[in-house]
Write a structure and sequence with these properties.
The complex is a heterodimer of chains A (123) and B (277). Chain A is mainly alpha-helical and 123 residues long. Chain A contains 5 helices and no strands. In chain A, helix 1 crosses helix 2, helix 2 packs across helix 5 and helix 4 crosses helix 5. The radius of gyration of chain A is 15 Å and the shape is globular. Chain B has 2 domains: 184 residues, Orthogonal Bundle (Cytochrome Bc1 Complex, Chain D, domain 2); 81 residues, Cytochrome c-like domain (Cytochrome Bc1 Complex, Chain D, domain 2), CATH 1.10.760.10. In chain B, a hairpin with a 2-residue loop joins strand 3 and strand 4. Chain B has a 3-stranded mixed β-sheet with strand order 6-5-7. Helices cover 42% and strands 7% of the residues of chain B. Chain B contains 10 helices and 7 strands. Classes of the chains: A mainly alpha (123), B mainly alpha (277). At the A-B interface, loops of A face helix 8 and strand 3 of B.
């Protein structure tokens, strides 16, 4: 996690404190939610993640069907790091995959990938 | 950014090869055609010349309606007009081609052993102009596309049957094949990723057409282009989609690629010009 996101977290955790726990689901902090919603934006930006060109997921509009549906990510990837690695460079686990190596080829920044992980981890 | 793209292209390597590295073109072709016939059992071999419409009944209906008043018809007429108009020296295109240029589109591309390179139809058109003292035309669209549309039109119904014989031809073929299966661009995809492995799947809302029959209908009228384009224009577009630097029209890379892909379609009939989304 980069330093800019740390600041983000601080700002939002103080907000969370103000807002109290009422608006929050038990597992997800407001900081994570902020990351997740930033992640959703990057995921759905055609020039960035463009994930739904290939993946369906709950709420995706006109998705493609090249990759598997992104659901139950928590169960499928109990280790969040593995999910991140998949997005960073899917060819390490699937050498012939069509999925672009978002981290290795600098398509997305480290922060953007962290945000996307947060977004799809809760799908 | 430019630097990044170039270094990534250089890093690209061969993946997802359904074809063996050291097979003969003939056995490659059998494997290639067999793969698509098996993947799309509902599509007749002949029908693969119709791109995505050969596998998607929904869009086929709209396409058939468009084909009743095809938008490329004017270009065929314009192409015929240019084809028949004498150059300043009094000669015509007919003087440069076998059978006066009628029904010969299926003889291209071929490997010219003496020159040691692939000759495509549009290259032959421009070389005819130069030989007769005229300026060459631009390669991606416009006049050259119209002339080649007319030449394609007079070749409709003839078989694709191009040859790969001799060392030079074999090398050009191998080069085209390697290009087809090599990862490219920032998005790191090969042609085969989309048009072999994922043919019939949807990338966003677009259905990916099978590679078999990909060249039979060029030049093509695309509504997206609002006009005709040559096949190298399409190659360039598909390279850009994966953020790779496109090669020049009529570059060695694209000519060899066209040679390989046309050979993979041997046995299909020419049906150009075509119309696509």
């Amino acid at each position: 996690m980069g330093s800019s996101s740390r600041k983000f977290v601080l700002v939002f955790s103080s907000l969370a404190f103000l807002a109290g726990s009422l608006a929050l689901t038990p597992q997800i902090s407001v900081a994570d939610e902020a990351m997740a919603s930033a992640g959703k934006k990057v995921a759905e930006n055609r020039k960035k993640g463009n994930c739904f060109a290939c993946h369906d997921y709950p709420g995706a509009v006109l998705p493609g069907n090249i990759g598997p549906k992104l659901v139950n990510m928590k169960q499928r990837y109990p280790d969040k790091k593995q999910l991140r690695d998949k997005i960073w460079d899917a060819t390490t686990t699937s050498p012939n995959t069509i999925m672009p190596p978002f981290g290795r080829h600098h398509i997305l920044s480290e922060q953007e990938i962290d945000n996307i992980v947060e977004f799809i981890y809760n799908l | 950014m430019r630097k990044l793209l170039i270094s990534i292209t250089a890093l690209s390597f061969m993946v997802g090869m359904p074809l063996l590295a050291q097979a003969s073109p003939e056995s490659d072709k059998k494997a290639f055609q067999g793969y698509f016939m098996k993947r799309f059992p509902g599509t007749a071999f002949e029908d693969f010349t119709n791109g995505v419409y050969s596998i998607d009944p929904m869009s086929r209906e709209q396409w058939e309606a468009i084909e009743e008043f095809p938008p490329y018809e004017i270009a065929i007429d314009e192409g015929q007009g240019m084809f028949e108009t004498p150059f300043k020296n009094g000669k015509t295109y007919a003087s440069c081609f076998p059978n006066d240029g009628i029904g010969v589109r299926n003889q291209y591309p071929y490997f010219d052993t003496e020159r040691g390179e692939v000759v495509t139809i549009v290259l032959a058109i421009n070389e005819c102009r130069i030989k007769n003292g005229e300026k060459p035309l631009k390669y991606k669209k416009g006049k050259i596309a119209a002339i080649s549309a007319y030449m394609a039109y007079t070749t409709r119904g003839k078989q694709t049957d191009i040859k790969v014989s001799g060392k030079g031809a074999q090398a050009a073929y191998e080069n085209g094949k390697q290009f087809y299966y090599a990862r490219r661009g920032q998005l790191n995809m090969s042609c085969a990723h989309c048009h072999v492995d994922n043919s019939g799947n949807r990338i966003r809302a677009d259905i990916l057409s099978p590679a078999l029959g990909h060249l039979s209908h060029f030049p093509v009228y695309r509504s997206k282009w609002g006009g005709l384009g040559t096949v190298h224009r399409r190659f360039g577009g598909c390279n850009k989609q994966v953020r790779a630097k496109p090669f020049k029209a009529q570059s060695k890379e694209y000519k060899d690629l066209e040679y390989f892909l046309t050979y993979m379609g041997n046995g299909l009939t020419w049906n150009g010009p075509g119309v696509r989304k």
